[in-house]
Amino acid sequence: MLAFDPRDSTSLDRAPEDCTRALGQSVQGLRIGVPKEFFGPGLSPDVAAAVEAALQVYESLGARRVEISLPSAALGIPVYYVVAPAECSSNLSRFDGVRYGHRAATHGDLTDMIKRSRAEGLGPEPKRRILIGAYVLSHGYYDAYYLKAQQVRRLIADEFQRAFRDCDVIAGPVTTTVAFGFGEKAADPVSMYLADLYTVPGSLAGLPSMSLPCGFGAHGRPVGLQLMSNHFDEARMLGVAHQYQCATDWHRRVPTGY
Fold first, then answer.
1. Counts of helices then strands in the chain (DSSP H, E)
2. Are 168 and 64 in contact (CB under 8 A)?
3. In 3-state terms, what secondary structure has residue 150?
4. Which residues have CB under 8 Å from 188's CB, separation 6+?
5. Measuring CA to CA, how many Å separate 197 from each of 106, 149, 190, 192?
6. For the chain (length 258 residues), average pLDDT per consecutive 10?
7. What 3-state class would DSSP assign to 250?
8. Are 213 and 249 in contact (CB under 8 A)?
9. Would you call 27 exposed, middle or buried from its count of C-beta atoms within 10 A (0-12, 13-18, 19+)?
10. All structural domains of the chain
11. Alpha carbons 41 and 53: distance in angstroms, whole number
């Protein structure tokens, strides 16, 4: 059961909901939206093949595939990596070694303590996002970057709402390639950011989404199927995912490519 949390400022005051209620429901007649932009250049053939096979499983269960368009989805990466670092810069400012977070064992005055604490307590990626966020929120750049990103974010959210008029859930790949190894792209953050091409649009729109194992690609590494539903429609999304897992055994298989 999910319900309102009075201690969470982001929690909506809604009636309690049982998100397991659709687990046994058939997908007969379900409309699955497939964004054509998610199957364009840049998607690995082995990932495309695994996702296509998953969609065919749904069709064999009685679901219907519907082609949809999310023309602004490709802007999700630049928008997300303006909005997210801005929020990161704002939220992580509290980790100064005084009230929150790590405190350096040795330091001089208060300013030196804060500098040392943040230098020791934050890793390369948080530092990178803090610097980017501070830049896009600074005077003279707020309107050019952060405000513009929020405007495009609204365009992306509106496109999803139009798409849900024609479909019940949206399906597509999770990433452009098979899963990569731990630390494999640590030295290339831009490459890691681009791996989020298909997941950040839904996040920017505030939509519930999930990833399901749907096959193995190159070198025996796993491929994920992404499902997205409209706001407050998590029960249907979980039910759709459950039907796929009942019909396949990918979630029980162990990848061999590591």
1. 8, 5
2. no
3. helix
4. none
5. 42, 16, 11, 10
6. 80 85 93 94 92 97 96 93 92 88 91 92 90 90 91 96 97 91 75 86 95 91 95 94 96 81
7. helix
8. no
9. buried
10. 31-252 (3.90.1300.10)
11. 19
Amino acid at 147: L
CB atoms within 10 A of CB 214: 26
DSSP-H helix ranges across the chain = 45-60, 76-91, 110-121, 124-136, 148-163, 189-194, 200-204, 234-247
Give yes or no for a contact between 159 and 21, defined as CB atoms under 8 angstroms apart: no
Plot region of 87 (φ>0 → left; ψ -120 to 50 → alpha; else → beta): alpha
Give the pTM. Answer: 0.87
The partner residues of 212 in beta bridges, in order of sequence, read: 225
Q: How far, in Å, CA of 193 to CA of 256, rounded?
A: 25
* Main-chain phi, psi angles of 229, to 5 degrees: -125, 170
Task: Please name the residue that has the structure tokens 């230098």.
Answer: 119
| Letter string b/e over residues 145-183, b meaning 16 or more CB atoms within 10 A of that residue's CB | bbeebeebbeebbebbeebbeebbbbbbbbbbbbbeeee
